[in-house]
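Working notes for the structural subgroup meeting. M.R. asked for a predicted model of this chain before we commit to crystallization trials. I am recording the input and output together here so anyone reviewing the notebook later can reproduce the run.

Input as submitted:
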Amino acid sequence: MAEGITLAEQGAIGKGFLEGLLASMNITAEVSVKEIDSETVEISVNANPPTELGVLVGPRGTTLQALQEVTRTVVQSKSPGRTDRILVDVAQYRERRIAALGRFASQVAQEVVETGEERALEPMSAADRKAVHDALSEVSTVVTRSEGEEPRRFVVVSPA
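Returned structure, recorded in token form:
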């Protein structure tokens, strides 16, 4: 737990900020808070149907990433000490993105094994790179590494 305010209080501040943002955008959605572990809180935004939430995700999750940073900044401004890890998800985007990256990484791994040649993937965010590394961590026929400098850092998949 961070010094100053509890993880639950941080979640409540983030939830209040997101509810206010949604109201100002005339978006009807439910905001919920879930503690993932002792240092991480996830604030989820969901609606039925989720169609109007796409504006909060943006292309490849870039708007969602910015929304998470703004939410974290709002929480930090209300905390006298450091804050814990705050994740924001909209319409289960992160879960779906991780699953899609896992499928893609498995395809790439299969190609790398078949050709015997390593393959560099396109530059991606740290969260996406982690999803690829995690998806292939149990695949004994390939190894992964990240190369390059931010914001053009990318994953390379090589035969083991």
